[in-house]
Amino acid sequence: MDIDAWVWWLIGAVGLGIPLVLTTMPEFGMFAVGAVAGSITAALGFGVVAQVLVFVVVSVALIAVVRPIAARHRDGRPQLATGVDALKGRQAVVLERVDGSGGRIKLAGEVWSARALDGALSFEPGQHVDVVDIDGATAVVM
């Protein structure tokens, strides 16, 4: 039984698709697409050298283009900060004297307990302070 070259390329594509599903490594999918491109090249009647060249070019091009885009999306932080992360970096107004041991501020329309980042500093009522961190229910300011 003589199987055409394009069928072998499709078998290779399926063979590369199996580890893609099992390992969730997208590189296998890119190689599988390259094998499909090699299959199309074989079906069009081109020789083995052209088939392998198309497979390599398509696979490398996909890895070179898709991988950096996927890495950027994977490593990207959320654009919208929510919860306590949204409060970090905001300004607040001191309501009661704030020092290293405590005090009160008005932050985002709410009254928060606060303490100074540097225990030697103190802030008087009416002063504006910057929130550098949230430690439980206490804003750390400077």
Written description of the protein model:
It is a single chain. The protein is an alpha+beta fold. The protein is built from 3 helices and 5 strands, in the order αααβββββ. It has helices at 5-23, 26-43, 48-75, and strands at 91-99, 102-107, 110-116, 128-135, 138-141. The chain has a 5-stranded mixed barrel with strand order 1-2-3-5-4. β4 and β5 form a beta hairpin. The chain is rod-shaped. The N and C termini lie far apart (80 Å).
Describe the structure in brief:
The chain contains three helices and five strands, in the order αααβββββ. It has 142 residues and is of the alpha+beta class.
Structure keywords:
single chain, five-stranded mixed beta barrel, rod-shaped, 24% strand, alpha+beta, 142 residues
The secondary structure category is alpha+beta
The succession of helices and strands, N to C, reads HHHEEEEE
By DSSP, the count of extended strands is 5
Q: How are the strands of the biggest sheet laid out side by side?
A: 1-2-3-5-4
Mean pLDDT: 91
Task: Report on the biggest sheet.
Answer: 5 strands, mixed, barrel
> Stretches where pLDDT falls below 50 for ≥5 residues?
none
Shape: rod-shaped
Strand residue content = 15-25%
What's the N-to-C terminus distance? 80 Å
**Tally of helical segments:** 3
Radius of gyration: 30 Å
